[in-house]
Amino acid sequence: MVMSDAERQVRFWNRFARRYAKSPVTDQAAYERTLAATRRWLVPEARVFEFGCGTGTTAIRLAPHAGSILAADTAPAIIEIASERAREAGVENVSFLVGGPDAFDRANPPGIVLAFNVIHLVIGWREALLELGRDLPPGTLFISKTACLTGERALIRLGIPLAVKLRIAPPVNIFSEADLVAEIEKAGFEILEREHHGTTGRDVRPFIVARKRG
Ligand SMILES: C[S@@+](CC[C@H](N)C(=O)[O-])C[C@H]1O[C@@H](n2cnc3c(N)ncnc32)[C@H](O)[C@@H]1O
Questions:
Q1: Ligand 1 centre distance from Cα of residue 28 (Å)
Q2: Ligand 1 pocket test: which of 25, 62, 79, 121 has the largest number of ligand atoms within 8 Å of its C-beta?
Q3: pLDDT at 195 over 80
Q4: How do residues 130-162 score in pLDDT, each as one tens digit?
């Protein structure tokens, strides 16, 4: 049976989950800058939805600065680890569920949506952004950090399809930063901030804060 890219994505992260959970953050200083930049937009009563939450590190770190965080990831094995970590950390205002960018309650939408290191992995990412734009009310903040792999070194960029084929990397979308910005705007968001937090040379992961237009 032929597996879809979305199924392959889930299978990769399910298999990789325990190893991924043990892998260190590649640029800790950049990560701290991203957390600080995100915290600037949070208020104590903020209702946050994060998709592609991974093993929950960001949700757990941001929990003291928000009212509640609903964090989703399409890989059940990843969500299992995130839930364990939140329990161990004693965090009570974060809940996890298996799901994608659309896993929030339409009747009670979040005020802030977070997407860190995931848009390049979302199969059908352009449609997913358009859907978010359609479903989120005006004023909703969309904060993301995304690998824009067109800007990567040729060796890495050209090696990606091979790594995907060999199943040592998940299926990825390769697009430029300009393309990502254009798609976020097309989905109905206004860009408020665009920064690079990397501290170790070339940084192809723009941190973008956008707000749904009225
Ligand atoms: C590189 S990890 C990033 C995790 C975390 N956000 C971080 O910054 O450390 C990507 C995560 O996105 C998840 N993912 C991939 N496609 C997704 C989708 N369409 N919706 C939600 N999560 C997805 C994967 O299962 C994986 O846990």
A1: 18
A2: 121
A3: yes
A4: 999 999 999 999 999 999 999 888 888 889 989
**CATH numbers and ranges of domains, the chain:** 5-212 (3.40.50.150)
Q: Write down the pLDDT at residue 154.
A: 85
Q: Give the DSSP per-residue string, 169-213.
A: S-------HHHHHHHHHHTTEEEEEEE----SS-----EEEEEE-
Supply the DSSP string of 17-48, one letter for each residue: HHHHHHSPPS-HHHHHHHHHHHHTT--TT-EE
> Locate tokens 């084929």: which residue?
165
Beta strand 68-73 with 47-51 is: parallel
Q: What is the pLDDT of residue 31?
A: 98
Whether the per-residue pLDDT at 1 is higher than 80: the answer is no
Pocket of ligand 1 (CB under 6 A): 9, 13, 51-54, 58, 72-75, 78, 100-101, 116-118, 121-122
Residue 173 — φ and ψ, nearest 5°? Answer: -95, 130
Chain position carrying tokens 């974060």: 94
Distances (CA, A) of 4 to 10, 11, 88, 158: 10, 11, 35, 22
Quote the mean pLDDT of the chain.
96
Q: How far is the CA of 116 from the centre of ligand 1 (A)?
A: 8
